[in-house]
Each structure stands twice: as C-alpha cells, then as structure tokens.
Amino acid sequence: xxxxxxxxxxxxxxxxxxxxxxxxxxxxxxxxxxxxQDPGEGPVLLIALxxxxxxxxxxxxxxxxxxxxxxxxxxxxxSIPSDVGIYFCxxxxxxxxxxxxxxxxxxxxx
Amino acid sequence: xxxxxxSPRHKVTETGTPVTLRCHQTExxxxxxxYRQDPGHGLRLIHYSYxxxxxxxxxxxxxxxxxxxxxxxxxxxxxxxxxxxxxxxFCAISDVNEQFFGPGTRLTVL
Lengths: 110, 110
Prior knowledge:
The complex is a heterodimer.
Chain A: E1 5-7, E2 10-14, E3 19-24, E4 31-37, E5 44-49, E6 55-58, E7 61-65, E8 71-76, E9 85-92, E10 99-100, E11 104-109
Parallel strand pairs in A: 2-11
Antiparallel strand pairs in A: 1-3, 3-8, 4-5, 4-9, 6-7, 7-8, 9-10, 9-11
Chain B: E1 4-7, E2 10-13, E3 19-25, E4 31-38, E5 42-51, E6 54-57, E7 64-70, E8 73-78, E9 87-94, E10 100-101, E11 105-109
Parallel strand pairs in B: 2-11
Antiparallel strand pairs in B: 1-3, 3-8, 4-5, 4-9, 5-6, 7-8, 9-10, 9-11
C-alpha cells in the first residue's frame, strides 16, 4: 500500500537545537496531520492542517501544509528531552482513511 | 485524551488459536479503525468501520475479520492466528479527518 516518504528517518540532536522534518507524496492530499508516538503508547495528534499554505503552531511545534498539497513540514524549536519519540505524518484524500509516513525517530541529548 | 480503551493490552497465544481484540470508545465517533504496526512498515490499516454493521477492508485485511454491533465497540478477530500476525495493534476513532489512537495491544503468536 501507499506510504508517504518522510525524512529524515532519524535525528540525533542536542537539547536546545531546532528540528525540521518533512513528508512528501506523489499525489495531492486534502488534509495533513502530524503525530508523535512515545515508546509503548499509541500515536498522539499534534497538529492538523486543512488548507494549502496553512501554517499552524502548537507551542514549540509549527507545521505547514505545502502549497503543492503534496508535502508538509514540521518544525520543533528549542528541543527538550521529552521531545524524544517517533514523529509520523499522515495525509488524507477524503474523510475516512489516512495514509501514514514511515516516521522520523528523534533523539535529544542533554 | 480521547476516550479509547483496548483490551487486552498484552496477549500471548499459540498458532492456530482464535483471538479477539476489543476496542471501546466513549466519544460516540462514527469511524473506527484497526491498524497494525511493525518495524519497517509503520502503521497499516487492517479494517475500518463507518457505522454500526458497516465495515470495509484496509490494505492488510487477509486473515482478519471485524464486527461492529454497537457504536462504541469494534472487534478485531484473528480466526486462526499465525506467527506473521505477531504485532502491535492499534485502534483509532474519528468523526471527520482527525484520528485518535488507543494505547495498543501487543500480540505475540508462538
């Protein structure tokens, strides 16, 4: 089945650094979502985007819906240890199913 | 947090035995989903439901069946478990675009 291309696959950064990750698709989506998954838990929704060009923030997190509708970006500013986890993008072409990215594993060192 | 529970949270079973996983929601959301998560594959949709008694297949539905007799409950059944079905299973719910995930069930088939 289709999966979104998410990069980078993993990141190792120092506390306080900013983080950027992105998700690309060969087809257009109407909705982009970003999730974070901690070990042993289910994914938690961070940000939802509904319009091309939309820029939305949630605390230190900022996500953008690409103008072409084929990509999305997530930035984390001033990373802290609790940002550690796996970040997934997900896209929807209609209202009932999501297609997930392959995930970006983030490690933050003090 | 969305009111989603999954039971059991952990299960070990033997090849050939039937297994039923339960997802229960208290949000009265229309859509419910079952995913499996495996290393290297991310989240893959098994089956989903768009209403009571209304279900459809996802990308990895072989070997699985589902039932939804009430809005709040969505059951996933492995009729005859195989080792390839060892995985972490997540239930999700949604009303429109945003899906909210349960805590997961770790299933091991020996």
